[in-house]
From TrEMBL:
<comment type="function">
    <text>Also exhibits azoreductase activity. Catalyzes the reductive cleavage of the azo bond in aromatic azo compounds to the corresponding amines.</text>
</comment>
<keyword id="KW-0285">Flavoprotein</keyword>
<dbReference type="GO" id="GO:0016655">
    <property type="term" value="F:oxidoreductase activity, acting on NAD(P)H, quinone or similar compound as acceptor"/>
</dbReference>
<keyword id="KW-0288">FMN</keyword>
<dbReference type="InterPro" id="IPR023048">
    <property type="entry name" value="NADH:quinone_OxRdtase_FMN_depd"/>
</dbReference>
<comment type="similarity">
    <text>Belongs to the azoreductase type 1 family.</text>
</comment>
<feature type="binding site">
    <location>
        <position position="11"/>
    </location>
    <ligand>
        <name>FMN</name>
    </ligand>
</feature>
<protein>
    <recommendedName>
        <fullName>FMN dependent NADH:quinone oxidoreductase</fullName>
        <ecNumber>1.6.5.-</ecNumber>
        <ecNumber>1.7.1.17</ecNumber>
    </recommendedName>
</protein>
<dbReference type="Pfam" id="PF02525">
    <property type="entry name" value="Flavodoxin_2"/>
</dbReference>
<dbReference type="InterPro" id="IPR003680">
    <property type="entry name" value="Flavodoxin_fold"/>
</dbReference>
<dbReference type="InterPro" id="IPR050104">
    <property type="entry name" value="FMN-dep_NADH:Q_OxRdtase_AzoR1"/>
</dbReference>
<comment type="subunit">
    <text>Homodimer.</text>
</comment>
<keyword id="KW-0560">Oxidoreductase</keyword>
<dbReference type="GO" id="GO:0016652">
    <property type="term" value="F:oxidoreductase activity, acting on NAD(P)H as acceptor"/>
</dbReference>
<dbReference type="InterPro" id="IPR029039">
    <property type="entry name" value="Flavoprotein-like_sf"/>
</dbReference>
<keyword id="KW-0520">NAD</keyword>
<comment type="function">
    <text>Quinone reductase that provides resistance to thiol-specific stress caused by electrophilic quinones.</text>
</comment>
Length: 202
């Protein structure tokens, strides 16, 4: 059976986004392999609204007791969680915006991180309910932040993934992309090579 990959992109720059370029490189490398199947969700094209109280409240109502409006609101989260659960590997192609993740990606996490569905609270702390999956972060950044206190993005992503049970997380960085052509080209080359190795191992 094919390894199912859910590729989530969130760059607002479209074809000019470097995180999208990394995602496209992965798609191209995986295209000729029958044992890999990729589903692509572009959160910049099919954007989600910010999570509001009415949508959040719809999750607290039993499915057979929801109003028509609540059913529509809850279905948005249900569909995203079902999609995540149906795949083996989650790949997040993530640009850095103001030291954080795009709001489009945050809106996705706000709907897949759902108490009682993808994690639950216990006396020993939260327990993730999304089992048997791994995640890969393709991180594209204008500056160089990995391993520094300014890289608040990587811990944030790992914390959210860990909360729902995905603790096998690796990161491929392409950094310094706005720091001159030499550094940019070298970083992208190294990232593409790392993606090639990743695809071979999947």
């Amino acid at each position: 059976m094919a390894t199912r990959i859910l590729l989530v992109t969130s760059s607002i720059l479209g074809e000019h986004g470097q995180s999208n370029a990394l995602a496209n490189h992965l798609r191209e490398r995986a295209a000729g392999r029958d044992e890999l199947a990729i589903t692509h969700r572009d959160l910049a094209v099919d954007s989600l609204p910010h999570l509001g109280l009415e949508e959040l409240s719809s999750w607290q109502v039993a499915a057979d007791e929801r109003s028509a409006e609540q059913q529509v609101l809850a279905q948005r989260s249900d569909d995203l969680i079902d999609e995540l659960q149906a795949h083996d590997v989650l790949v997040l192609a993530v640009p850095m915006y103001n030291f954080g993740i795009p709001s489009q990606l945050k809106a996705w996490f706000d709907r897949v991180m759902r108490a009682g569905t993808t994690f639950r609270y216990t006396e020993q702390g939260p327990v993730g309910l999304v089992k048997g999956k791994r995640a890969v972060i393709l991180a594209a950044r204008g500056g160089q932040y990995a391993g520094t206190e300014n890289d608040t993005q990587t811990p944030h992503l790992k914390a959210m993934l860990g909360m729902i049970g995905i603790t096998d997380v690796s990161t491929i960085y392409a950094e310094g992309l706005a720091m001159g052509d030499g550094l940019r080209n070298a970083a992208l080359k190294e990232a593409r090579q790392a993606i090639d190795s990743l695809v071979e191992r999947l």
